[in-house]
What we know:
Layout: H1 2-15, H2 18-26, H3 34-58, H4 62-108, H5 110-123, H6 128-140, H7 142-153, H8 163-179, H9 192-218, H10 222-251
Helix pairs in contact: 3-4, 3-8, 3-9, 3-10, 4-5, 4-7, 4-8, 5-6, 9-10
Amino acid sequence: MVRLKRRRNEALDHDHDPASIARRLERPREAQTVPDAILGGIDGCVTTFAVVSGAFGAGFSATVALVLGLANLLADGFSMAISNYEAIQAQREYIEGIRKSERAHIDRSPEGEREEIRQIYRRKGLRGETLERVVSTISQDRQVWVDTMLSEEHGLQTTGLSPLRSALTTFAAFLLVGAMPLLPYTLGGLDATQQFVASLVIAALMFFLIGMLKSLVYHRPMLQSGLRTLLMGGAAAGLAFLAGHVAHSVFGVGVA
């Protein structure tokens, strides 16, 4: 235990030496794919298992459940990927619009924009000559000046936004995880109840594993995160089952 702690401290010291810091800061910031993968995986599993639950509750056959599940898997996965693409593209266009606006403000009222920089860093605790040097340094470089206004005044993330990458990651995760609850319906030798129970177990496992993945990435309690995701996914599936059962009972919808 002591040796492991020593190794971690040595690795931390190495990551914070001047050369390592310089290399890390010079690297282009990549698009974050983990949130897109988590979003796609959860929604894919919820979508297909909700279809399976609704079909089982309504008394549909395994074939109908499989066909509906595959249709929803492809259609909803594509729709979600497109929505994610458009959302991030719109965010990039919004940032570019703000960037153009800040450039125009610098051209028309440079002293006013310097005062904004001054007040921003005064709020961070800088005073006197130090504050004025910071204002002067930032305002000497137009690109740095604009980027500072985007991040400090508007709170915008200006890097790591890739609409295509996010869309493809969401779509792939949606298909991969969403297909899991449908696997029992591709196997012979199981009756409808056994297929549904197997699908239920697989979906629960997927929800729990996705929650654990979130805990590893975002440094949250593993068990708590897994159970939380499991409960949210289970609630969505329960609603779908209830809707299918009510439709079967009230309207006689179903296939024997």
